[in-house]
Amino acid sequence: MKAKTAVITGSTGGIGKEIARGLALRGASVVLVGLDPAAGRQAVHELSRDARHDRIEALAADVTTLDGLTKLASQIAERTDRLDVLVNNVGLNPPARQLTADGVERTFAAHVLAPFTLTHLLLPHLRQAGDARVVNVTGGIPGGPIERDNLQAEKRFMGWTFSQYNHTKTMTMAMTHRLAAELTGTGVSANVVYPGHGYTPMNRSTSIKAFPMVYRPIAPLVLKVIAPLFLADLTRSARPSVYLASSPEMAGISGAYFDSKGRHQPWPASVLDPRNRNAVWDLCTSLSLRVLGGRA
Asked: Are 87 and 135 in contact (CB under 8 A)?
């Protein structure tokens, strides 16, 4: 990874920081992206010490807004004319439906629209790398149905087994499947990775109301007992993303889904339905039109 540059969103803490650490330890120049500048400075200090080089910096950005994404892309463009790796890792799990400043449902904005928009904004720099990799991180319990009439939780945000968090993580997969097809011949690959479950800062702050109703009786046990005991090692959760971003074995592989052990897995049926992929893609295209114009 020496002489390569990687950008990781949601990387000033949690799994994202461990992905950044793994790439920095392999010699990559790393740009961390997070909301809190203080957390960014602390992460830069920690990772620079561990990686024993100073080619690590942090940028503060709200990637749930189009203005935040545009500013972030401009800041990255000022620092490099070539980008080798983009890991779209940011995640959030609110207990109720919220809208961003753009009027977009917030989990859709973070998990689907942000990776779509940022990838397109940075595409000229990714293409300069020759073998660039976009790694989109899913999570939760993905793979369920995609409700084309409920992409932004217009009809329901939470249900007995349904949550918009899991719904948008499945949409991440559908968007990436289409993205990989669109990128054919550009020298840029796009894949999805599932990190498994980890005891992250996001999970520690998750409200019980953010869980589907069927899981709420056991949620306190999971969050307060099981997760701290068995899911605290976030390097394990970061490992498959680091593999996709850095391994020579991944050269030329695109449009694929990998599990928490880095094994190639079949796409869920909902992702293979072209009506679902097109619905998610078309919504992202429409919502990002102000900043992307006709580039998507």
From this structure: yes
Whole-angstrom distance, CA of residue 55 vs CA of residue 51: 9
Phi/psi at 50 (nearest 5 deg)?
A: -70, -40
The arithmetic mean of pLDDT across residues 46-71, rounded, is 97
Strand, helix or coil at 260? coil
- Buried-exposed string 101-115: b where 16+ CB fall within 10 A, e elsewhere: ebebbbbbbbbbbbb
Q: What's the rounded mean pLDDT across residues 266-278?
A: 98
Q: Beta strand 264-265 with 257-258: parallel, antiparallel or unpaired?
A: antiparallel
What pLDDT, on the 0 to 100 scale, is given for residue 150?
98
Mean pLDDT of the chain: 93
Which residues are 133's β-sheet partners? 85, 189
How far is residue 235's CA from residue 247's CA, in Å, rounded to a whole number? 16
For the domain with range 5-292, which CATH number is right: 3.40.50.1220, 3.40.50.300, 3.40.50.720, 3.40.50.2300? 3.40.50.720
Max mean pLDDT range (21-25, 91-95, 210-214): 21-25
Distance CA 176, CA 173 (A): 5
- The answer to whether residues 24 and 18 touch, using CB atoms and an 8 Å cutoff, is no
List pLDDT tens digits, range 209-253: 777 777 677 667 766 777 676 666 788 999 999 999 999 999 999
